[in-house]
Design goal:
Elements: H1 2-29, E1 33-38, H2 41-51, E2 56-57, E3 63-65, E4 70-72, E5 78-80, H3 81-84, H4 94-103, E6 107-122, E7 127-140, E8 145-154, H5 164-174, H6 177-194, E9 196-203, H7 207-222, E10 226-235, E11 240-248, H8 251-263, E12 271-276, E13 279-284, E14 289-295, H9 299-314, E15 320-327, E16 336-342, H10 347-360, E17 367-372, E18 376-381
Parallel strand pairs: 1-2, 1-6, 9-13, 14-18
Antiparallel strand pairs: 3-4, 4-5, 6-7, 7-8, 9-11, 10-11, 12-13, 14-16, 15-16, 17-18
Helix pairs in contact: 1-6, 2-5, 9-10
Length: about 400
């Protein structure tokens, strides 16, 4: 009796552990989105019924051409069956990158049939047998293998043997979806704990600019997410700065934060940011210089207005690399104060900002807006040269 009680106690404890373990898994798994791709409609539908209880499905309209043995995505990417329905390494697969870019799944699940056969055993008695094998493979979005399983079945020899479709249902029942869920949970925890490698490249970066802006560029990365093990290397020949780090967090969120952080950085001017998986590439753009020209200034007006206008232009945070020069002429009406700078936005936005600043400073009365284009703002000083405003 004592032994029996002890066994019951162990059984209850085991069930409680199992209960808490199974309750904890969905917190991780159900937040994960999957993309299921199969070579067979029936197989896809059966597996999907199981997965929907565990994960979030990514809706898709991927077409299947069984005759040509290809898949066609919504963005017209053609994928041969042989490129995805296999157990080969796919980490550097161009096809995998295209699928991840189009659908952004947390996990890719490939399922396919193999050795499908309807074999006549006895022609005299009309006896035959059906055989089939299925494979299921789960990868995370980097191409890392997370789970893999196979199952096979064959019907009894009969005049009307069990159909291939019925065999598929039986085989999917044999698959251990609890183990699949646990594998994805383990992979998710691993990524959260260890982080993932990211690489950020700054292309077309002169060596002089590298020394000037290195600390600011690293700061852009660190302000965009939780990074560890940050290390950088500059290639003088390629004019490239490569920064590697470990990210704890979501790559898509980091991508958005990285762009926002770069916009407000003093170390970056005009740029474009590209992403391919865990690789982020900044490319410098040749920014068109913008100008503000104030014509008709006397030398006294110039000396009085230089600081006022300079401060007014700088009041917009997007103005960079501001320079000025005064072109003096014997005739005051032909003298010009010229400001040159880089600016991403529309110049009408800057002009409004300048007007507000000058108005608040009481300096906006003795001048007129002559013209404004995509690249320049032209002011004309008032006729009263004694009015220094």
């Amino acid at each position: 009796m004592v032994i029996l009680k002890h066994h019951w106690r162990l059984l209850i404890q085991g069930l409680l552990v199992l209960f808490f373990f199974t309750v904890s898994i969905p917190a991780y798994s159900q937040s994960q989105a999957y993309l299921l791709i199969s070579d067979n409609d029936v197989l896809q539908e059966i597996i999907n019924d199981y997965l929907l209880d565990l994960f979030e499905e990514i809706p898709n309209e991927i077409e299947r051409d069984e005759e040509e043995q290809v898949l066609l995505t919504e963005e017209d990417t053609v994928i041969a069956y042989s490129e995805v329905f296999n157990n080969k390494p796919l980490r550097k697969s161009v096809v995998l990158s295209a699928i991840v870019e189009e659908y952004a799944p947390d996990y890719l699940i490939f399922s396919w049939t193999e050795g499908k056969e309807s074999k006549e055993i006895s022609s005299a008695y009309g006896m035959s047998q059906n055989k089939v094998k299925i494979n299921i493979r789960v990868l995370n979005y980097t191409g890392r293998n997370v789970y893999r399983e196979t199952a096979s079945a064959k019907s009894k020899i009969a005049i009307t043997p069990t159909s291939i479709e019925e065999l598929l249902i039986d085989m999917v029942d044999q698959l251990d979806f609890f183990e699949l869920e646990a594998a994805i949970t383990k992979d998710t925890r691993r990524k959260q704990k260890r982080g993932q490698s990211v690489k950020v490249v700054f292309a077309k970066l002169e060596q002089e600019d590298y020394f000037k802006t290195r600390d600011q560029l690293i700061e852009v990365l660190q302000n965009s997410g939780s990074l560890a093990k940050v290390r950088d290397k500059y290639n003088k020949g390629k004019k490239e700065l490569t920064i590697r780090a470990t990210l704890k967090g979501d790559l898509d969120e980091y991508y958005r934060n990285l762009y926002r952080s770069a916009l407000i950085s003093e170390g970056l001017e005009d740029f474009e940011l590209d992403r391919e998986g865990e690789l982020f590439v900044f490319k410098a753009l040749s920014a068109a210089r913008k100008r503000i020209v104030i014509s008709g200034l006397s030398s006294k007006q110039y000396h009085h207005r230089l600081k006022t206008y300079r401060d007014a232009i700088r009041s917009d945070e997007d103005v960079r690399q501001l320079r000025h020069k005064f072109i003096q002429d014997d005739q005051a009406k032909d003298s010009k104060l010229v400001f040159e700078f880089t600016y991403r936005d529309d110049l009408t936005v800057l002009e409004e900002q300048i007007w507000k600043y000058l108005e608040q400073a009481g300096q906006a009365l003795n001048r007129e807006l002559a013209s404004i284009t995509n690249t320049s703002i032209n002011y004309t000083a008032g006729a009263d040269t004694t009015d220094l405003r």
